[in-house]
Automatic annotation (TrEMBL), chain A:
<keyword id="KW-1003">Cell membrane</keyword>
<comment type="similarity">
    <text>Belongs to the ABC transporter superfamily.</text>
</comment>
<keyword id="KW-0067">ATP-binding</keyword>
<dbReference type="InterPro" id="IPR017871">
    <property type="entry name" value="ABC_transporter-like_CS"/>
</dbReference>
<dbReference type="InterPro" id="IPR027417">
    <property type="entry name" value="P-loop_NTPase"/>
</dbReference>
<dbReference type="Pfam" id="PF00005">
    <property type="entry name" value="ABC_tran"/>
</dbReference>
<keyword id="KW-0813">Transport</keyword>
Automatic annotation (TrEMBL), chain B:
<dbReference type="InterPro" id="IPR014342">
    <property type="entry name" value="Ectoine_EhuC"/>
</dbReference>
<keyword id="KW-0813">Transport</keyword>
<protein>
    <submittedName>
        <fullName>Polar amino acid transport system permease protein</fullName>
    </submittedName>
</protein>
<keyword id="KW-1003">Cell membrane</keyword>
<dbReference type="InterPro" id="IPR035906">
    <property type="entry name" value="MetI-like_sf"/>
</dbReference>
<feature type="transmembrane region" description="Helical">
    <location>
        <begin position="183"/>
        <end position="205"/>
    </location>
</feature>
<dbReference type="GO" id="GO:0043190">
    <property type="term" value="C:ATP-binding cassette (ABC) transporter complex"/>
</dbReference>
UniProtKB/TrEMBL annotation, chain C:
<dbReference type="Pfam" id="PF00528">
    <property type="entry name" value="BPD_transp_1"/>
</dbReference>
<keyword id="KW-0813">Transport</keyword>
<keyword id="KW-1133">Transmembrane helix</keyword>
<feature type="transmembrane region" description="Helical">
    <location>
        <begin position="58"/>
        <end position="81"/>
    </location>
</feature>
<dbReference type="GO" id="GO:0043190">
    <property type="term" value="C:ATP-binding cassette (ABC) transporter complex"/>
</dbReference>
<protein>
    <submittedName>
        <fullName>Polar amino acid transport system permease protein</fullName>
    </submittedName>
</protein>
<comment type="similarity">
    <text>Belongs to the binding-protein-dependent transport system permease family. HisMQ subfamily.</text>
</comment>
C-alpha cells in the first residue's frame, strides 16, 4: 500500500487550558473519502482547520503528501514552518466552509477565478474557462455575473465548492457544508458532492451531520468524541453494527431511534 | 457695506477654507491608513508608536496642536508658514481619529473572509489588498464622511493663526462693519453648504462602493 | 539664538498661572455640560413629539448646529447678541455656545437611548394608564440612562477639549493664559506643552470617572425618588 496522503502523529492541540487533541493519530489514504461524525465540541472542525493551516498545533507531526505540514527541514532539523512552506503546502488543500465565506464584493465568476489567477498565475482566459466548466458542474452556469448576496444559500455553497475546486486541490476539506442551509436546499449541494465522489480522484475529508449522506458516499466513517476517534470503519459497520456504546448512543440520538 | 460686497469677501475666505480642506484631507487619509494598518499588523514597537500618535492627538485638542506646531516648532529651528502649520495640524488631528475608523472597519470584516483567503492560498498582502480592504473600505465611508465634516469645521481654527479663511474674513468684516447679523448668517450657511456637499458626496460614494455588498448576512 | 532645551525654572514659574486658569476651563466645561444635557433632552423629546413640522424643523436645526464650526458659533454669539441688547461675559457666551453645540450632539444620543428601551415598556405604561410625563420619568428614562452614559461622557470630554476655542473671545482659560505667557517671555514651548499635558491628564481622568459612573448605575435601571 502506498503512503497515506494525510497522517497525524501524536498531535496535540490546546486552546488555552482546554486540550482538544492529546496524542492524536490519524491517517487518510489517497483518494479515500472519510466522513467524520460526532458530538458538538469534539474537535471535528479543529481537525480540518489544522489541516487548512488555520490553526497551529502544540505538539506532534502532521504529514501531507509525504511532507511535514507544520514543520520544515532546516539544517537537518525540523523547525516550525515558515509562511513560504505553508504556502507551498496549501497547494494540496482546499476547503469548503459551513458559512460559505464567499467574497461579497466579487461576482461569482471573480470569486472562482481570483485565486487561480493571482495565486497560480493562470491567464484570465484559462481561469475563466475553467470557472465556466466548474459552474456548469455545480449547475450555476447562468449565475456567473451575479453577486453572492443575490444567491440562495444552496447556490452560495455550490459556488463555494466550485471556488475550492478551481485551485485543483488533491485534498478537499468540507466542514458541515449543509448545516447553514434550509432543509430543502441541502440536496442540491449534496448532489454536487455525490458526483465528485463518483469520480474517485479526490481525497475528501468531510465533517457532517447528514448520516445518510455519510453512509452513502464514504469509504470510511470515523466517530469522534472528546478529541479521540472512538470508532472507525466502513459505513455499513458503523451505522448498522456500532461496537462502542458511545457510538450507539450518538447514532440513536441522531437517527431518532 | 453692500450685501453683495460682503458675500464676495466671504466667498474669497471660503475658497481658502476649501483649499485647506483639500490639502489636509489627503494627509489625514494617509495618516489614517498608515497608522491604522501599523496598529493592526506591524510589530510591537511600531504598534506602540501608532498608539502614542493616536492617544496624543485625540487626547489634546486641535487648537493646542495647531498652536504648538505654529508657535513652538520655530523654537526648534523649524519655521513653517501658517498655512503649512494649519494643514499639518488638522491633517494629523483628523488622521488620528481616522486611524480608529480604519482599524474598526478592518476588524469588522468577518473572520470567515480571512479564512477563505488563507484556504485559497492568497499571500498576506493579497489577502489584505484584494479581500479585506475592499470590504472594509465600504464600512469606512460613512465615518470618513463625518470626519471630513469635522475637518471642515476644524479649519475655522486656522483663522486664529492669521490665515484669511472664511472665519477670519467674517471676523474682520464684523470688526469693520455693523452688519454682524448678516455676515454671520452668510458664514454659517456657507459652512453648512460645504458640509452638506461632503455629506452627499460620501453617501454617493457609499452607494457606488457597496455594489454587491448590500443586504449583508452570510456569504 | 533662542534656547532649545526645556527650562524647568520657567515651568515652575508658569505652572501656577496655568493651573489657576484651569479653574475657568473646568467651570466652562461643567456649565456647558449642564446646558448641553438640558438642550439635548429638550431636542430629543421634541424630535419624538407629535407635530411633524416641529420634528423636521428640530432635525434640520440640529443638523445645522452640528455641521457648522463651534468657533463661528462662538463669534456669532459674541458679535450678534449685543445687537439684540444682550451683552454677555465671555464665559457666559462660551457656555451657551458649548451647551447648544454639544446639546445638538447629545440629542442624538438621548433619542437613540430612549428608542432603545423596549417597545413593550410603552405599551405596559399605557395599559397602566400612566401619563406620558410619568412614563418618561418613571419608566423610560431610568432604563435609558445607563446605556447613554458612555456616549454622553465622550461628548463631554470632546467639549472639554474644545474649550481652548473660547480664548478667541478673550476668555482667560488655559490656552489663552499660556499664549499670553508665551508672547511676554518669547517662549512658547513650556506653556503650550504644559497645557497639552494638562488636557491629556484631565481627559484620561474624566474617561476613568465616566467609566466609574457607568458602573454605579444598575443594569436594570433604577427609580427616581
Ligand atoms: N479559537 C478557539 N478558541 C478557544 N476555543 C476554541 C476555539 N475554537 C474551538 N474551540 C473549542 O474547541 C472545542 C472543539 O471545537 P470544534 O469547533 O473543533 O468542535 P466541533 O466538533 O467542530 O463541534 P461542532 O459540531 O459544534 O462544529 C470546542 O470546545 C470549542 O469551544
Ligand atoms: Mg464544527
Amino acid at each position: 500500500m502506498s503512503q497515506p496522503i494525510i497522517e497525524f502523529k501524536n498531535v496535540q492541540k490546546r486552546f488555552g487550558d482546554t486540550t482538544i487533541f492529546d496524542d492524536f493519530s490519524f491517517k487518510v489514504e489517497e483518494n479515500e473519502i472519510v466522513s467524520i461524525i460526532g458530538p458538538s465540541g469534539s474537535g471535528k472542525s479543529t481537525l480540518l482547520r489544522i489541516l487548512m493551516t488555520l490553526e497551529g498545533i502544540d505538539g506532534g507531526y502532521i504529514n501531507v503528501a509525504g511532507e511535514s505540514l507544520w514543520h520544515m527541514l532546516w539544517n537537518d532539523r525540523y523547525v516550525p514552518a515558515s509562511n513560504k512552506h505553508l504556502h507551498k503546502m496549501r497547494e494540496q488543500l482546499g476547503m469548503v466552509f459551513q458559512h460559505f465565506n464567499l467574497f461579497p464584493h466579487m461576482t461569482v465568476k471573480r470569486n472562482i477565478t481570483e485565486a487561480p489567477m493571482r495565486v497560480k498565475g493562470l491567464s484570465r482566459q484559462d481561469a475563466e474557462e475553467s470557472a465556466e466548466a466548474l459552474l456548469e458542474l455545480v449547475g450555476l452556469a447562468d449565475k456567473a455575473e451575479s453577486y453572492p448576496n443575490d444567491l440562495s444559500g444552496g447556490q452560495k455553497q455550490r459556488v463555494g465548492i466550485a471556488r475550492a475546486l478551481a485551485m485543483r486541490p488533491a485534498i478537499l476539506l468540507l466542514d458541515e457544508i449543509t448545516s447553514a442551509l434550509d432543509p430543502e436546499l441541502v440536496d442540491e449541494v449534496l448532489d454536487v458532492i455525490r458526483n465528485l465522489a463518483k469520480e474517485q480522484s479526490f481525497t475528501m475529508l468531510l465533517v457532517t451531520h447528514e448520516m445518510y449522506f455519510a453512509r452513502e458516499i464514504s469509504d470510511r466513517v470515523c466517530f469522534f468524541d472528546k478529541g479521540k476517534i472512538v470508532e472507525e470503519g466502513v459505513p455499513e459497520d458503523i451505522f448498522s453494527a456500532p461496537r462502542e456504546e458511545r457510538t450507539q448512543a450518538f447514532l440513536n440520538a441522531y437517527l431518532g431511534q | 457695506m453692500e450685501f453683495g460686497e460682503i458675500v464676495s469677501v466671504l466667498l474669497q475666505g471660503a475658497i481658502v477654507t476649501i483649499k485647506i480642506v483639500a490639502m489636509a484631507l489627503p494627509l489625514a487619509a494617509f495618516m489614517a491608513f498608515t497608522f491604522g494598518l501599523v496598529r493592526l499588523y506591524a510589530p510591537a514597537p511600531f504598534k506602540q508608536l501608532s498608539i502614542l500618535y493616536i492617544e496624543f492627538f485625540r487626547g489634546t485638542s486641535a487648537l493646542i496642536q495647531l498652536y504648538w506646531i505654529y508657535f513652538v516648532l520655530p523654537f526648534f529651528g523649524l519655521s513653517i508658514d501658517a498655512m503649512t502649520a494649519g494643514v499639518i495640524a488638522l491633517g494629523l488631528n483628523i488622521g488620528a481619529y481616522g486611524t480608529e475608523v480604519v482599524r474598526g472597519a478592518i476588524q469588522a470584516v468577518p473572520k470567515g473572509q480571512y479564512e477563505a483567503s488563507v484556504a485559497l492560498n492568497f499571500t498576506s498582502s493579497q489577502r489584505l489588498l484584494r479581500i479585506i480592504l475592499p470590504q472594509a473600505l465600504v464600512n469606512m465611508i460613512p465615518p470618513f464622511g463625518n470626519l471630513a465634516i469635522e475637518l471642515v469645521k476644524a479649519t475655522s481654527l486656522v483663522s486664529l493663526i492669521t490665515i484669511a479663511d472664511l472665519t477670519f474674513k467674517a471676523k474682520s468684516l464684523a470688526d469693520m462693519t455693523l452688519q454682524v447679523g448678516e455676515i454671520f448668517v452668510v458664514v454659517l450657511v456657507l459652512y453648512f453648504a460645504m458640509a452638506q456637499c461632503l455629506s452627499l458626496f460620501f453617501r454617493y460614494l457609499e452607494k457606488r462602493l457597496s455594489r454587491g455588498l448590500g443586504r449583508g448576512g452570510m456569504n | 539664538m533662542i534656547e532649545l532645551n526645556w527650562d524647568w525654572t520657567f515651568v515652575w514659574q508658569v505652572l501656577p498661572m496655568i493651573l489657576s486658569a484651569a479653574k475657568v476651563t473646568l467651570l466652562a466645561t461643567f456649565l456647558g455640560s449642564l446646558l448641553a444635557i438640558c438642550v439635548g433632552l429638550i431636542f430629543a423629546l421634541l424630535r419624538r413629539g407629535s407635530s411633524k413640522t416641529v420634528r423636521v424643523t428640530v432635525y434640520w436645526l440640529m443638523e445645522f448646529i452640528r455641521s457648522t464650526p463651534l468657533l463661528v458659533q462662538i463669534f456669532f454669539l459674541y458679535y450678534v447678541m449685543p445687537e439684540f441688547g444682550l451683552s454677555m461675559s465671555p464665559l457666559m457666551t462660551g457656555v451657551i455656545a458649548l451647551g447648544v453645540h454639544y446639546g445638538a450632539y447629545l440629542s442624538e444620543v438621548f433619542r437613540s437611548g430612549i428608542e432603545g428601551v423596549d417597545k413593550g415598556q410603552w405599551e405596559a405604561s399605557r395599559a397602566l394608564n400612566l401619563t406620558s410625563f410619568d412614563t418618561y420619568k418613571d419608566i423610560i428614562l431610568p432604563q435609558a440612562i445607563r446605556p447613554m452614559i458612555p456616549a454622553t461622557g465622550n461628548y463631554i470630554i470632546a467639549m472639554f477639549k474644545e474649550t481652548p476655542q473660547l480664548s478667541a473671545i478673550t476668555l482667560l482659560e488655559m490656552l489663552q493664559v499660556a499664549k499670553i505667557i508665551g508672547s511676554e517671555n518669547f517662549r512658547y514651548l513650556e506653556p503650550f506643552t504644559l497645557v497639552g499635558i494638562l488636557y491629556l491628564v484631565f481627559s484620561v481622568l474624566a474617561a476613568y470617572g465616566i467609566h466609574q459612573i457607568e458602573k454605579r448605575f444598575p443594569k436594570e435601571g433604577f427609580s427616581l425618588k
